Amino acid sequence: MAKITVNGEVQEVQPGLSLTELIKQNNVEQPEMVSVQVNDDFVDRTEWDALEIKEGDVVDFLYFMGGGRLSEE
After folding, report:
1. Three-state secondary structure call for residue 46
2. pTM above 0.85, yes or no
3. Nearest to 7 by CA among 28, 33, 32
4. Helix then strand then coil, % of the chain, to nearest 5
């Protein structure tokens, strides 16, 4: 097993697990809306199937929320 950190939590995963498989294992809600960083680098969605997670990797699932300011009228 390989120890990695996902969103600040240590996990053990099978070596060679793809990023796509990791997303499924973590039950990421709305994977089509998530951005992923591995070791502080953003990973393009087209690379998720090919990227293998390795011992010591730090993975963050990021959701960018839109918003605005309430105008005071």
Report:
1. helix
2. no
3. 28
4. 20, 35, 50
